[in-house]
Amino acid sequence: MDDFKQLIRERILARETFVRATFSGGQKGFSIQWEKVIVRPVEIQGEVQLQFSYFDEKKDTTQNYPFKQAKARVDELLALPFRNIFVESNAGNVQVNVSKKGKPIVNEFKPAAVPVPVNLAHNREKHRILSDENARPFLEAVGIMTKDGRIKADMQRKHKQINEFLRLLDETASFDAWSGSPVNVVDFGCGSAHLTFAVYYYLRNILELDVHVTGVDVKAELIERHQQTAAAMGWDRLSFEVGYIAEYEPEVKPNVILALHACDTATDDALAKGIQWESKVIVCAPCCQHELQEQLSHAPTPSQMLPVFHHGILFERMGDILTDTFRATILRIMGYRTDVTQFVPIEHTGKNLMIRSMKTTPPGDPRWVEEYRNLKSFWQVKPYLEKLLGEAYAKYF
Protein backbone atom coordinates (compact mmCIF):
# COMPACT_ATOMS: atom_id res chain seq x y z
CA MET A 1 0.00 0.00 0.00
CA ASP A 2 2.80 2.42 0.88
CA ASP A 3 4.92 1.63 -2.20
CA PHE A 4 2.99 4.05 -4.40
CA LYS A 5 3.24 6.75 -1.72
CA GLN A 6 7.02 6.49 -1.78
CA LEU A 7 6.95 6.75 -5.58
CA ILE A 8 4.72 9.84 -5.43
CA ARG A 9 6.93 11.39 -2.75
CA GLU A 10 10.09 10.82 -4.79
CA ARG A 11 8.59 12.28 -7.97
CA ILE A 12 7.35 15.44 -6.23
CA LEU A 13 10.55 16.10 -4.28
CA ALA A 14 12.81 15.64 -7.33
CA ARG A 15 13.30 19.33 -8.07
CA GLU A 16 15.06 18.78 -11.41
CA THR A 17 12.19 16.83 -13.00
CA PHE A 18 8.97 17.60 -11.10
CA VAL A 19 6.30 19.51 -13.07
CA ARG A 20 3.00 19.29 -11.20
CA ALA A 21 0.89 17.03 -8.96
CA THR A 22 -2.87 16.95 -8.50
CA PHE A 23 -4.68 15.28 -5.59
CA SER A 24 -8.47 15.15 -6.06
CA GLY A 25 -11.68 13.45 -4.95
CA GLY A 26 -12.32 11.53 -1.77
CA GLN A 27 -12.32 7.77 -1.41
CA LYS A 28 -15.65 6.06 -0.80
CA GLY A 29 -16.80 6.56 2.77
CA PHE A 30 -14.36 9.40 3.48
CA SER A 31 -14.62 13.16 3.33
CA ILE A 32 -11.76 15.58 2.72
CA GLN A 33 -11.64 19.29 3.44
CA TRP A 34 -10.48 20.12 -0.07
CA GLU A 35 -11.93 19.23 -3.45
CA LYS A 36 -8.47 19.36 -4.97
CA VAL A 37 -4.87 20.17 -4.10
CA ILE A 38 -2.31 21.16 -6.74
CA VAL A 39 1.42 21.08 -6.03
CA ARG A 40 3.97 22.67 -8.36
CA PRO A 41 7.44 24.23 -8.24
CA VAL A 42 7.74 28.03 -8.08
CA GLU A 43 10.64 30.44 -7.90
CA ILE A 44 10.51 33.02 -5.11
CA GLN A 45 13.38 35.48 -4.68
CA GLY A 46 15.71 33.20 -6.60
CA GLU A 47 14.83 30.05 -4.62
CA VAL A 48 12.79 27.18 -6.07
CA GLN A 49 10.06 26.16 -3.64
CA LEU A 50 6.94 24.01 -3.78
CA GLN A 51 3.58 25.75 -3.98
CA PHE A 52 0.53 24.00 -2.50
CA SER A 53 -2.83 25.31 -3.78
CA TYR A 54 -5.86 24.06 -1.83
CA PHE A 55 -9.27 24.33 -3.49
CA ASP A 56 -12.67 24.01 -1.84
CA GLU A 57 -16.14 25.23 -2.81
CA LYS A 58 -15.71 28.68 -1.29
CA LYS A 59 -12.08 29.72 -1.67
CA ASP A 60 -8.59 28.86 -2.83
CA THR A 61 -5.64 28.88 -0.42
CA THR A 62 -2.01 28.94 -1.56
CA GLN A 63 1.07 28.25 0.56
CA ASN A 64 4.74 28.06 -0.48
CA TYR A 65 7.42 25.94 1.23
CA PRO A 66 11.16 25.39 0.71
CA PHE A 67 11.86 21.83 -0.41
CA LYS A 68 13.15 20.80 3.03
CA GLN A 69 9.86 21.81 4.65
CA ALA A 70 7.74 20.61 1.73
CA LYS A 71 8.36 16.93 2.47
CA ALA A 72 6.16 17.14 5.57
CA ARG A 73 3.38 18.82 3.54
CA VAL A 74 3.59 16.08 0.89
CA ASP A 75 3.36 13.42 3.59
CA GLU A 76 0.27 15.16 4.98
CA LEU A 77 -1.40 14.90 1.57
CA LEU A 78 -0.41 11.26 1.15
CA ALA A 79 -1.99 10.49 4.53
CA LEU A 80 -5.36 11.82 3.34
CA PRO A 81 -7.85 9.49 1.56
CA PHE A 82 -7.67 11.08 -1.91
CA ARG A 83 -9.19 8.98 -4.69
CA ASN A 84 -7.06 10.30 -7.55
CA ILE A 85 -3.41 11.38 -7.68
CA PHE A 86 -1.65 12.44 -10.86
CA VAL A 87 2.00 13.47 -10.90
CA GLU A 88 3.48 15.05 -14.00
CA SER A 89 7.24 14.60 -14.09
CA ASN A 90 9.97 14.58 -16.70
CA ALA A 91 11.16 11.38 -15.01
CA GLY A 92 7.84 9.76 -15.98
CA ASN A 93 4.26 10.50 -14.99
CA VAL A 94 2.49 8.56 -12.24
CA GLN A 95 -1.28 8.08 -11.97
CA VAL A 96 -2.98 6.53 -8.95
CA ASN A 97 -6.70 5.77 -8.76
CA VAL A 98 -8.12 4.16 -5.63
CA SER A 99 -10.98 1.72 -6.21
CA LYS A 100 -14.22 1.66 -4.22
CA LYS A 101 -12.71 -1.15 -2.16
CA GLY A 102 -9.72 1.01 -1.29
CA LYS A 103 -7.25 -0.70 -3.61
CA PRO A 104 -4.74 1.66 -5.30
CA ILE A 105 -4.37 1.15 -9.05
CA VAL A 106 -0.98 2.56 -10.03
CA ASN A 107 0.17 3.41 -13.55
CA GLU A 108 3.75 4.56 -14.08
CA PHE A 109 4.55 6.00 -17.51
CA LYS A 110 7.79 6.32 -19.42
CA PRO A 111 9.36 9.79 -19.63
CA ALA A 112 8.16 11.87 -22.58
CA ALA A 113 10.53 12.14 -25.54
CA VAL A 114 10.50 15.93 -25.14
CA PRO A 115 10.66 17.23 -21.54
CA VAL A 116 7.71 19.30 -20.39
CA PRO A 117 8.77 22.93 -19.77
CA VAL A 118 8.23 24.09 -16.19
CA ASN A 119 6.78 27.53 -15.47
CA LEU A 120 8.06 28.77 -12.11
CA ALA A 121 5.99 31.97 -11.91
CA HIS A 122 4.80 32.01 -8.30
CA ASN A 123 1.49 33.86 -8.81
CA ARG A 124 0.22 31.71 -11.66
CA GLU A 125 -2.42 29.76 -9.75
CA LYS A 126 -4.24 32.91 -8.67
CA HIS A 127 -5.70 33.21 -12.18
CA ARG A 128 -6.69 29.61 -12.67
CA ILE A 129 -10.43 30.23 -12.56
CA LEU A 130 -12.89 32.81 -13.80
CA SER A 131 -13.75 35.00 -10.83
CA ASP A 132 -16.87 37.13 -10.75
CA GLU A 133 -14.65 40.18 -11.22
CA ASN A 134 -12.25 39.14 -13.96
CA ALA A 135 -14.90 37.37 -16.06
CA ARG A 136 -17.88 39.69 -15.66
CA PRO A 137 -18.16 40.65 -19.39
CA PHE A 138 -18.23 36.99 -20.44
CA LEU A 139 -20.57 35.89 -17.66
CA GLU A 140 -23.08 38.62 -18.50
CA ALA A 141 -22.87 37.95 -22.24
CA VAL A 142 -23.78 34.27 -21.93
CA GLY A 143 -26.53 34.84 -19.35
CA ILE A 144 -24.82 33.47 -16.25
CA MET A 145 -24.50 36.79 -14.40
CA THR A 146 -27.06 39.56 -13.94
CA LYS A 147 -26.33 43.18 -14.89
CA ASP A 148 -25.75 44.03 -11.23
CA GLY A 149 -23.00 41.41 -10.90
CA ARG A 150 -24.78 38.44 -9.30
CA ILE A 151 -24.62 34.85 -10.53
CA LYS A 152 -28.16 33.81 -11.43
CA ALA A 153 -29.64 31.25 -9.05
CA ASP A 154 -30.31 28.73 -11.81
CA MET A 155 -26.77 29.19 -13.17
CA GLN A 156 -24.80 28.54 -9.97
CA ARG A 157 -24.13 24.92 -10.89
CA LYS A 158 -23.11 25.75 -14.45
CA HIS A 159 -20.78 28.50 -13.22
CA LYS A 160 -19.02 26.01 -10.97
CA GLN A 161 -18.87 23.41 -13.75
CA ILE A 162 -17.27 25.86 -16.17
CA ASN A 163 -14.55 26.67 -13.66
CA GLU A 164 -13.92 22.99 -13.01
CA PHE A 165 -13.66 22.29 -16.73
CA LEU A 166 -11.14 25.10 -17.21
CA ARG A 167 -9.03 23.72 -14.37
CA LEU A 168 -9.06 20.25 -15.91
CA LEU A 169 -8.24 21.63 -19.36
CA ASP A 170 -5.34 23.71 -18.09
CA GLU A 171 -4.00 20.81 -16.04
CA THR A 172 -3.88 18.81 -19.26
CA ALA A 173 -2.45 21.44 -21.58
CA SER A 174 -0.23 23.48 -19.19
CA PHE A 175 -1.05 26.60 -21.20
CA ASP A 176 1.53 28.76 -19.44
CA ALA A 177 4.18 26.93 -21.44
CA TRP A 178 2.44 28.00 -24.69
CA SER A 179 3.30 31.68 -24.28
CA GLY A 180 4.13 33.13 -27.71
CA SER A 181 2.73 30.13 -29.57
CA PRO A 182 -0.65 30.31 -31.35
CA VAL A 183 -3.44 28.25 -29.79
CA ASN A 184 -6.09 27.07 -32.25
CA VAL A 185 -9.06 25.43 -30.55
CA VAL A 186 -11.99 23.60 -32.15
CA ASP A 187 -14.99 22.75 -29.96
CA PHE A 188 -16.95 20.02 -31.73
CA GLY A 189 -20.66 19.79 -30.93
CA CYS A 190 -20.50 23.13 -29.10
CA GLY A 191 -24.26 23.21 -28.39
CA SER A 192 -25.18 26.08 -26.07
CA ALA A 193 -21.49 27.13 -26.27
CA HIS A 194 -21.10 28.16 -22.63
CA LEU A 195 -17.81 26.27 -22.59
CA THR A 196 -16.76 27.61 -25.99
CA PHE A 197 -17.14 31.19 -24.82
CA ALA A 198 -15.47 30.33 -21.50
CA VAL A 199 -12.43 28.74 -23.14
CA TYR A 200 -12.01 31.74 -25.45
CA TYR A 201 -12.33 34.28 -22.64
CA TYR A 202 -10.02 32.36 -20.33
CA LEU A 203 -7.24 31.82 -22.88
CA ARG A 204 -7.53 35.24 -24.51
CA ASN A 205 -8.36 37.59 -21.64
CA ILE A 206 -7.00 35.84 -18.54
CA LEU A 207 -3.93 33.99 -19.85
CA GLU A 208 -3.45 36.49 -22.71
CA LEU A 209 -2.57 33.84 -25.29
CA ASP A 210 -2.62 34.18 -29.08
CA VAL A 211 -5.79 32.13 -29.46
CA HIS A 212 -8.48 31.43 -32.03
CA VAL A 213 -11.49 29.33 -31.02
CA THR A 214 -14.05 27.80 -33.39
CA GLY A 215 -17.31 26.21 -32.27
CA VAL A 216 -18.86 23.65 -34.62
CA ASP A 217 -22.42 22.35 -34.43
CA VAL A 218 -25.15 21.09 -36.79
CA LYS A 219 -27.83 23.42 -35.40
CA ALA A 220 -27.84 26.52 -37.58
CA GLU A 221 -30.06 28.58 -35.28
CA LEU A 222 -27.64 28.10 -32.37
CA ILE A 223 -24.63 28.97 -34.49
CA GLU A 224 -26.28 32.18 -35.72
CA ARG A 225 -27.05 33.23 -32.15
CA HIS A 226 -23.49 32.51 -31.01
CA GLN A 227 -22.08 34.48 -33.94
CA GLN A 228 -24.18 37.46 -32.93
CA THR A 229 -23.03 37.23 -29.30
CA ALA A 230 -19.36 37.01 -30.31
CA ALA A 231 -19.76 39.99 -32.66
CA ALA A 232 -21.50 42.05 -29.98
CA MET A 233 -18.57 41.38 -27.63
CA GLY A 234 -16.03 42.31 -30.30
CA TRP A 235 -14.43 38.88 -30.06
CA ASP A 236 -13.16 38.58 -33.62
CA ARG A 237 -11.02 35.52 -32.88
CA LEU A 238 -14.02 33.49 -31.75
CA SER A 239 -16.04 32.01 -34.61
CA PHE A 240 -18.83 29.49 -35.11
CA GLU A 241 -19.59 27.23 -38.07
CA VAL A 242 -22.46 24.95 -39.03
CA GLY A 243 -21.27 21.46 -39.91
CA TYR A 244 -20.80 17.81 -39.08
CA ILE A 245 -17.65 16.73 -37.27
CA ALA A 246 -16.68 14.12 -39.85
CA GLU A 247 -16.90 16.67 -42.68
CA TYR A 248 -15.19 19.60 -40.98
CA GLU A 249 -11.92 20.82 -42.50
CA PRO A 250 -10.29 23.89 -40.93
CA GLU A 251 -8.04 26.37 -42.68
CA VAL A 252 -5.44 25.85 -39.94
CA LYS A 253 -5.09 22.51 -38.18
CA PRO A 254 -6.16 22.98 -34.54
CA ASN A 255 -3.77 22.04 -31.76
CA VAL A 256 -6.59 21.71 -29.20
CA ILE A 257 -9.69 19.57 -29.80
CA LEU A 258 -12.71 19.65 -27.47
CA ALA A 259 -15.74 17.37 -27.76
CA LEU A 260 -17.98 17.63 -24.72
CA HIS A 261 -21.46 17.17 -26.11
CA ALA A 262 -20.88 14.69 -28.93
CA CYS A 263 -23.09 11.59 -28.72
CA ASP A 264 -22.12 8.03 -29.62
CA THR A 265 -19.82 7.89 -32.68
CA ALA A 266 -19.58 11.70 -32.94
CA THR A 267 -17.05 11.47 -30.11
CA ASP A 268 -15.03 9.05 -32.24
CA ASP A 269 -15.28 11.44 -35.19
CA ALA A 270 -13.73 14.16 -33.03
CA LEU A 271 -10.99 11.88 -31.69
CA ALA A 272 -10.14 10.68 -35.20
CA LYS A 273 -9.85 14.26 -36.44
CA GLY A 274 -7.56 15.16 -33.55
CA ILE A 275 -5.33 12.14 -34.14
CA GLN A 276 -5.15 12.72 -37.90
CA TRP A 277 -4.33 16.41 -37.41
CA GLU A 278 -1.80 15.48 -34.69
CA SER A 279 -3.46 17.96 -32.37
CA LYS A 280 -1.44 18.57 -29.23
CA VAL A 281 -4.36 18.34 -26.79
CA ILE A 282 -7.60 16.34 -27.08
CA VAL A 283 -10.28 16.52 -24.39
CA CYS A 284 -13.65 14.80 -24.63
CA ALA A 285 -16.50 13.98 -22.27
CA PRO A 286 -18.33 11.11 -23.99
CA CYS A 287 -22.11 11.19 -23.85
CA CYS A 288 -23.56 7.86 -24.98
CA GLN A 289 -21.97 4.78 -26.51
CA HIS A 290 -24.27 2.58 -28.58
CA GLU A 291 -22.09 1.45 -31.49
CA LEU A 292 -19.91 -0.96 -29.51
CA GLN A 293 -22.92 -2.23 -27.56
CA GLU A 294 -24.45 -3.29 -30.86
CA GLN A 295 -21.30 -5.25 -31.70
CA LEU A 296 -21.25 -6.85 -28.25
CA SER A 297 -24.84 -8.00 -28.63
CA HIS A 298 -23.89 -9.97 -31.76
CA ALA A 299 -20.42 -11.18 -30.73
CA PRO A 300 -19.80 -14.40 -28.78
CA THR A 301 -20.05 -13.56 -25.09
CA PRO A 302 -16.96 -14.61 -23.08
CA SER A 303 -18.16 -17.23 -20.62
CA GLN A 304 -16.62 -15.31 -17.71
CA MET A 305 -18.86 -12.33 -18.51
CA LEU A 306 -22.21 -14.13 -18.84
CA PRO A 307 -23.43 -12.99 -15.39
CA VAL A 308 -22.95 -9.36 -16.46
CA PHE A 309 -24.86 -9.82 -19.71
CA HIS A 310 -27.92 -11.19 -17.90
CA HIS A 311 -28.78 -7.66 -16.81
CA GLY A 312 -29.55 -4.93 -19.32
CA ILE A 313 -28.24 -2.04 -17.24
CA LEU A 314 -24.96 -3.84 -16.50
CA PHE A 315 -24.57 -4.74 -20.17
CA GLU A 316 -25.07 -1.08 -21.09
CA ARG A 317 -22.52 0.11 -18.55
CA MET A 318 -20.06 -2.51 -19.69
CA GLY A 319 -20.44 -1.17 -23.22
CA ASP A 320 -19.77 2.36 -21.96
CA ILE A 321 -16.66 1.30 -20.05
CA LEU A 322 -15.25 -0.73 -22.93
CA THR A 323 -15.88 2.03 -25.46
CA ASP A 324 -13.97 4.59 -23.41
CA THR A 325 -11.24 2.06 -22.57
CA PHE A 326 -10.67 1.41 -26.28
CA ARG A 327 -10.63 5.15 -26.97
CA ALA A 328 -8.10 5.86 -24.23
CA THR A 329 -5.87 2.99 -25.34
CA ILE A 330 -5.92 4.11 -28.98
CA LEU A 331 -4.90 7.60 -27.88
CA ARG A 332 -1.99 6.12 -25.91
CA ILE A 333 -0.96 4.09 -28.96
CA MET A 334 -0.97 7.34 -30.95
CA GLY A 335 1.51 8.90 -28.53
CA TYR A 336 -0.86 10.77 -26.25
CA ARG A 337 -0.41 10.90 -22.49
CA THR A 338 -3.97 9.99 -21.53
CA ASP A 339 -6.03 9.76 -18.40
CA VAL A 340 -9.72 9.16 -17.76
CA THR A 341 -11.03 11.24 -14.90
CA GLN A 342 -14.34 12.09 -13.28
CA PHE A 343 -16.05 15.22 -14.54
CA VAL A 344 -19.45 16.54 -13.49
CA PRO A 345 -21.07 16.99 -16.89
CA ILE A 346 -22.43 20.29 -18.16
CA GLU A 347 -25.63 18.63 -19.33
CA HIS A 348 -27.88 16.79 -16.88
CA THR A 349 -26.70 13.24 -17.53
CA GLY A 350 -25.24 10.33 -15.61
CA LYS A 351 -22.19 10.30 -17.89
CA ASN A 352 -19.41 11.98 -15.96
CA LEU A 353 -16.13 10.77 -17.46
CA MET A 354 -13.60 12.95 -19.22
CA ILE A 355 -10.79 11.65 -21.44
CA ARG A 356 -7.81 14.02 -21.41
CA SER A 357 -4.86 13.56 -23.75
CA MET A 358 -1.69 15.42 -24.64
CA LYS A 359 0.67 14.43 -27.46
CA THR A 360 4.07 13.57 -25.99
CA THR A 361 5.63 10.71 -27.99
CA PRO A 362 5.60 9.13 -31.47
CA PRO A 363 2.90 6.49 -32.06
CA GLY A 364 3.33 2.76 -31.68
CA ASP A 365 4.40 2.04 -28.08
CA PRO A 366 4.39 -1.81 -28.01
CA ARG A 367 2.89 -1.90 -24.50
CA TRP A 368 -0.29 -0.12 -25.57
CA VAL A 369 -0.48 -1.96 -28.88
CA GLU A 370 -0.40 -5.30 -27.06
CA GLU A 371 -3.00 -4.22 -24.51
CA TYR A 372 -5.31 -3.02 -27.26
CA ARG A 373 -5.00 -6.17 -29.36
CA ASN A 374 -5.57 -8.41 -26.34
CA LEU A 375 -8.68 -6.49 -25.31
CA LYS A 376 -10.08 -6.51 -28.83
CA SER A 377 -9.40 -10.23 -29.20
CA PHE A 378 -11.11 -11.04 -25.90
CA TRP A 379 -14.31 -9.21 -26.84
CA GLN A 380 -14.27 -10.01 -30.58
CA VAL A 381 -15.13 -6.43 -31.57
CA LYS A 382 -13.67 -3.67 -33.74
CA PRO A 383 -14.04 -0.20 -32.16
CA TYR A 384 -15.49 2.50 -34.37
CA LEU A 385 -12.50 4.78 -33.79
CA GLU A 386 -10.22 2.14 -35.30
CA LYS A 387 -12.49 1.98 -38.35
CA LEU A 388 -12.37 5.75 -38.75
CA LEU A 389 -8.58 5.87 -38.63
CA GLY A 390 -8.44 3.40 -41.52
CA GLU A 391 -5.50 1.85 -43.33
CA ALA A 392 -3.07 4.63 -42.48
CA TYR A 393 -3.02 3.42 -38.87
CA ALA A 394 -3.92 -0.27 -39.36
CA LYS A 395 -0.42 -1.51 -38.43
CA TYR A 396 -1.04 -0.47 -34.82
CA PHE A 397 -4.30 -2.41 -34.42
Give the structure's gist in a few sentences.
This protein has 397 residues and is an alpha/beta fold. It has twelve helices and 14 strands.
Describe the structure.
This protein has 397 residues and is α/β, with parallel strands linked by helices. The chain has a domain at 1-125. It has twelve helices and 14 strands. The chain has a seven-stranded antiparallel beta sheet, covered by helices on one side. The radius of gyration is 21 Å and the shape is globular. 39% of the residues are buried. Mean pLDDT is 87; it is low at 124-128 and 345-349.
Low-confidence stretches: 124-128, 345-349
Q: List the total number of helices.
A: 12
Q: End-to-end distance, in Å?
A: 35 Å
Largest sheet, described in full?
7 strands, antiparallel
Q: What fraction strand?
A: 15-25%
Largest beta sheet: strand ordering = 4-3-2-1-5-6-7
What is the SS-derived class? alpha/beta
Order of helices and strands: HEEEEHEEEHHEHEHEEHEHHHEEHH
Anisotropy-based shape: globular
Count of distinct strands: 14
Q: Report the radius of gyration as a whole number of Å.
A: 21 Å
Mean pLDDT: 87
- In helices, the fraction of residues equals 25-40%
